[in-house]
Design brief:
Chain C: It is found in: Mitochondrion. Chain C: This is Large ribosomal subunit protein mL40. Chain C: One of its GO terms (molecular function) is structural constituent of ribosome. The complex is a heterotrimer of chains A (about 290), B (about 350) and C (about 150). Chain A is built from seven helices and seven strands, in the order H-H-E-H-E-E-H-E-E-H-H-E-H-E. Chain A has about 290 residues and is α+β, with helices and mostly antiparallel strands. Chain A has a domain of about 150 residues: 50s Ribosomal Protein L5, Chain: A (2-Layer Sandwich). In chain A, the strands form two sheets. Chain A has a five-stranded antiparallel sheet. A two-stranded parallel ribbon of chain A has the order 4-7. Chain B is of the alpha+beta class and about 350 residues long. In chain B, the strands form two sheets. In chain B, strands 6-4-3-7-8 form a five-stranded antiparallel sheet. A three-stranded antiparallel sheet of chain B has the order 1-2-5. The chains are: A alpha+beta (about 290), B alpha+beta (about 350), C mainly alpha (about 150). Chains in contact: A-B, A-C, B-C. The interface between A and C is large, with 56 and 47 residues.
Chain lengths: ~290, ~350, ~150
């Protein structure tokens, strides 16, 4: 009978042929690490200054963000305001119409004519004014397969330029023609958010880019279509970062990098408008996107 | 220079327990810096060595003023709600909601009062439970450790399916035996010696909401009594208490409370007297709310006690539980003699 | 010495490089101290990359100061939240005024309305509108500046 606990330990019910899993019905979520007496400092929230994980964020003024909030935002809203505008529907995946029972849980079909769905572009309002989300500095060094110690140099360069510890980048595929082997460390990348991103953008626009003679501006065609702008720096250009320029003896080899600025803009042109206000020049003819407004 | 200017230093309409009693501590908390060093440090050398974080003396007065202003706004809201409560019908849903909201606002108003914060974090054992802030703080503390621990122990020791089917804990149950030399409160699931459990425990029930005219039932139940004839286990009721009036302040069930009214003891205390080689006995302490209704004509049998039936018949609501364990040790015989119980059996394995 | 390299180990060294790790293998001595400085440099770079012994000390709070910190932290968070809400409110009011102005313009002059609502995708902030600094630049205004005229091909 169910729930029968026998006193004798030799009953048949105790010798089951499979693993017995008792029904679990926790009414109260038990966080085991809080019950353990070990590591009392790690039980504290990372925002608690007594915790070893505590890291003060607001250490100085953020000029770039203040400029965006004080000056750029209201103008960006005005520039992109179109009276009576409606959302521009993007191409979406098509759902099955459940005329057949096999439609249940079947994955949605790709959009009509395209493989990849596109986002719906909402009209400009006070709620969706673009801002800077993050800046990613990425350096891929092809020679790392033959000379792995270059990885240290790349990582150090990115760390000193940005002030943030970088992550290593690994080769994802095996391509013998490019000399790529899967899993080999091939460079480094850094994701900058908040004050680090603002500081890096300031350095770029005020110190580095003005000194590069061949730099006219970021191409108006460079973008991910939906609000991300990218450009690159050559090893010669990287010299102008103050950490490298005033200490050139320590830097035997400089590495080029790709800088990607992720914004909360819905479209590339909005992102370019925002970045032009932060001192980044743009050059070349702009391409009007086809499927959106 | 003291920052005591606003609501938080006025005690005409607020309880004095919302402030710190020690003068030295008060000056430490209500001045921009620490004029006499940190009061919480005992040694004079460490007081001199200690340095406050940089810039705190400039920012703290502004922060204190800002939070006090917000508290004043909340008190204005409380006055409004009190008027609404007075005009509302007694016992109506609206009144209950308004009272709950008032409770919450009273807690919100004092949540960032530095004196209250100090007491909550560094003087937890002496908090005034009549104040909603302190009750809320105690609840948060319970939920961060003791609640999870109790539930974990109840589940792993299988007290929950074996006695009552489940528990939604609302109340913190703490038990204390007179003999415990090291710690006062028993950790749930602890194996206690028969010496310790030979006398009835003192039960402390902490309610986190305001208690008004509430009666409690306590049952100590042992589901591990061997029943050889049926090759199973039976449940024995070790102790039963009913109609015990408790409040937020007066929350301890001790011999004094039981002497007030003899009918409160449903059944006298029977100490756990486990038998040798039998499995460890679990003693589950169940606390129930009677919803203000006293129990009448209740008959309980000690042996083969059906706790689920009892709970259903008397319309009880399980609000808290605790568990401790007992195995055979050399004091069991002495305890049996003390209570006039027959000698225990000694079990051994029989090969069939 | 910058690095904590034990030169006795690295005296006779060649490194076999494979994958992600450097393996130090003893081989026949080639040149006297040929790779020393390079290896030392690498070790220094690695030590700069690591956070070992470079982390600041934990802040130590007395009970009173910890309580004060909590009050300060909460009040700062509320201050920032209120500031953001105020900014959003101002932006919303601006939006409403733009919308109202457009409504009026639509009824007044259709030509001006369509001109006002043409999309300007290539509109940019002027580069001279630099991110403000605490002090003005050494040369505050370039009086001789003429904008570049783009040659149309």
């Amino acid at each position: 009978m169910l729930g029968y606990r026998s006193f004798s330990t030799s009953s048949v019910s105790l010798k089951v042929g499979c693993a017995m899993v008792k029904p679990v019905h926790h009414r109260v979520k038990v966080i085991k690490k809080l019950l353990s007496p070990r590591f009392p400092e790690l039980k504290l929230s990372p925002t608690d200054p007594r915790s070893p994980k505590f890291r003060p964020e607001i250490t100085h003024q953020d000029r770039v963000q203040e400029h965006i909030h004080n000056t750029l935002r209201s103008d960006l809203m005005l520039i992109n305001y179109i009276h009576g505008e409606k959302p521009a529907e993007g191409l979406k995946r098509r759902q099955w119409d459940f005329t057949s029972p096999y439609h249940i849980n079947r994955p949605a079909r790709p959009p009509k004519g395209e493989k990849v769905p596109t986002p719906t572009i909402m009209p400009q309002s006070w709620k969706n004014v673009p801002g800077i989300e993050k800046v990613v500095v990425h350096s891929f060094v092809a020679n790392c397969t033959s000379d792995p110690k270059l990885n240290i140099g790349v990582s150090l360069q990115l760390q000193q330029i940005t002030g943030v510890k970088p992550q290593s980048v690994y080769a994802k595929t095996n391509l013998p023609s490019f000399g790529l082997r899967k899993g080999v460390k091939m460079g480094a990348k850094v994701e900058l958010t908040g004050r680090d991103a603002s500081q890096f953008l300031s350095t770029l626009t005020e110190l580095v880019l003005p000194r590069i003679t061949t730099f006219e501006g970021i191409s108006n065609r460079a973008g991910s279509r939906y609000g991300t702008v990218s450009f690159g720096l050559k090893p010669e250009d990287v010299l102008y970062f103050p950490e490298i320029y005033y200490n050139q003896d320590a830097w035997a080899k400089r590495f080029g990098m790709d800088i990607t600025i992720h914004t909360t803009a819905q479209l590339d042109r909005e992102a370019r408008q925002l970045l032009s206000g932060l001192g980044l020049p743009f050059v070349g003819t702009e391409r009007e996107p086809k499927l959106t407004r | 220079m003291s920052l005591a200017k606003g609501v938080w230093s006025q005690f005409s309409r607020r309880s004095p327990s919302l402030g710190v009693s020690s003068k030295a501590l008060k000056t430490a908390l209500l001045s921009p810096d620490l004029p006499n060093g940190p009061v919480s440090f005992k040694k004079r050398s460490s007081k001199i060595q200690y340095q406050s974080p940089i810039g705190m003396e400039q920012v703290y007065p502004l922060a204190y003023e800002m939070m006090e202003k917000r508290s004043e706004q909340v008190y204005a809201k409380i006055d409004q709600i009190t008027e609404e409560i007075n005009s509302a019908e007694d016992g109506s849903d609206l009144k209950i909601k308004l009272l709950a909201k008032k409770d919450k606002l009273l807690a919100d108003a004092e949540k960032f009062n530095p004196e209250v914060l100090y007491k909550v974090q560094f003087a937890t054992n002496s908090l005034d439970v009549t104040q909603p802030v302190y009750r809320r703080a105690l609840k948060e503390k319970w939920e961060s450790y003791a609640k999870m621990l109790t539930m974990q122990r109840l589940e792993t020791l299988n007290v929950i399916p074996d006695t009552l089917p489940t528990l939604e804990p609302e109340v913190d149950v703490k038990i204390r035996f007179a003999h415990n030399a090291i710690e006062t409160y028993v950790e749930p699931g602890k194996i206690l010696s028969s010496n310790v459990t030979s006398k009835p425990p003192v039960i402390e029930i902490t309610e986190f909401e305001e208690v008004q005219h509430e009666l409690y039932t306590v049952l100590i139940v042992n589901p591990d009594i061997p029943d050889i004839e049926n090759d199973t286990f039976s449940t024995t009721l070790h102790w039963g208490l009913k109609d015990i009036p408790l409040s937020n302040v007066d929350n301890v069930i001790d011999p004094k409370k039981l002497l007030e009214d003899e009918t409160r003891e449903l059944i006298s205390y029977l100490p756990p007297t486990p038998e040798k080689n039998a499995p460890t006995n679990r003693l589950a302490v169940w606390v129930f709310r009677q919803n203000g209704v006293p129990l009448e004509k209740v008959e309980v049998t000690r042996e083969f006690f059906n706790i689920r039936e009892f709970v259903e018949q008397n319309n009880l609501q399980a609000v808290g539980a605790h568990v401790f364990r007992s195995t055979w040790d050399r004091n069991v015989n002495r305890v049996r003699e003390l209570y006039g119980l027959p000698k225990g059996r000694i079990f051994h394995r029989v090969r069939r | 010495m910058l690095s904590n390299v034990r030169t006795s180990i690295i005296r006779q060294v060649d490194y076999l490089t494979s994958g992600t790790q450097l393996h130090f293998i003893r081989t026949k001595r080639k040149k006297a101290g040929s790779d020393k400085s390079e290896v030392r440099k690498l070790v220094t770079q690695l030590s700069v990359l690591s956070a070992n012994r470079k982390q600041p000390k934990l802040l130590k709070f007395s009970n009173e100061d910890y309580v004060k910190h909590q009050v300060i932290q909460k009040s700062w968070n509320l201050y920032v939240r209120d500031k953001k809400a105020e900014e959003a409110n101002i932006l919303q009011k601006q939006y409403e005024s733009i919308r109202a102005a457009n409504e009026d313009l639509q009824s007044v002059s259709k030509e001006l309305f369509s001109f006002a609502n043409t999309r300007e995708p290539s509109k940019r902030f002027p580069l001279e509108l630099r991110v403000p600094t605490e002090y003005p630049p050494n040369q505050i205004w370039h009086h001789d500046y003429t904008p570049k005229v783009e040659k149309k091909k």
